[in-house]
Design brief:
two-stranded antiparallel ribbon; 8 helices; 7 strands; alpha/beta; five-stranded parallel beta sheet; globular
């Protein structure tokens, strides 16, 4: 089996991120750690870091399970610490990861929704559960809008949230990268409109 894997690596070289261990990646995250709250949403590391950017890229465009595992294992302990700082969660309270939904057209083109992949790896079905309660209607991509103001206005009203979870569920909306904060604001607006009270917006990078 090891020989076959090596032969496949020679024929179809893997991205360098695929060779990094979880321990090494977590050590790297600890070195570049720069938690911040851009637009009032918590974020862990700078997207400008090449290794972080590579992991997010592999997750986003290739649905790399290894990249998802690297990011989730490094992100989870800091996220749990942040949750403890902002919420007084009881033993019987339910905490749910809600992945930021991708644009439907982009999801069809890529053949996957990378944040769903990440959410599955981040949740542990023990202390943090996975819930898909957000959906998104297609709009022209924010990056295709000519100005920052146009991008922010474009995203408004583009998301819907179902109320299939109890209103007192602690919801963590997770995105890969936060830029203007417009997408996160829209997600939280939709969730509040659906009746949810405890909502936290977080991203891996900023």
């Amino acid at each position: 089996m090891e020989l076959i894997r090596k032969l496949l690596d020679l024929i179809f070289p893997r991205h360098p991120i695929e060779h990094i261990s979880c321990d090494d990646f977590s050590d790297h995250v600890a070195c570049v750690l720069h938690t911040t709250t851009p637009h009032a949403y918590w974020s862990l590391v700078p997207y400008s870091d090449p290794l972080i950017r590579s992991a997010i890229w592999e997750l986003k465009y290739n649905a790399s399970r290894h990249a998802a595992t690297l990011l989730a294992e490094a992100f989870r302990p800091y996220l749990l610490e942040h949750i403890a700082d902002v919420w007084n969660v009881g033993t019987h309270d339910r905490v749910c990861i809600v992945p930021m939904p991708g644009d439907p057209r982009r999801v069809r083109t890529r053949g996957h929704d990378h944040m769903r992949v990440f959410g599955k790896h981040l949740s542990d079905n023990n202390s943090i559960f996975l819930a898909h309660v957000l959906s998104r209607v297609h709009r022209e991509q924010q990056t295709e809008q000519p100005t920052r103001r146009a991008r922010i206005e474009n995203i408004h009203g583009s998301m819907r949230a179902s109320n299939k979870l109890p209103n007192n569920t602690y919801i963590i909306v997770v995105d890969d990268v936060i830029t203007t904060g417009a997408t996160m604001r829209e997600a939280i607006r939709a969730l509040r409109e659906a009746g949810y009270v405890h909502i936290l917006g977080v991203s891996v990078a900023h």
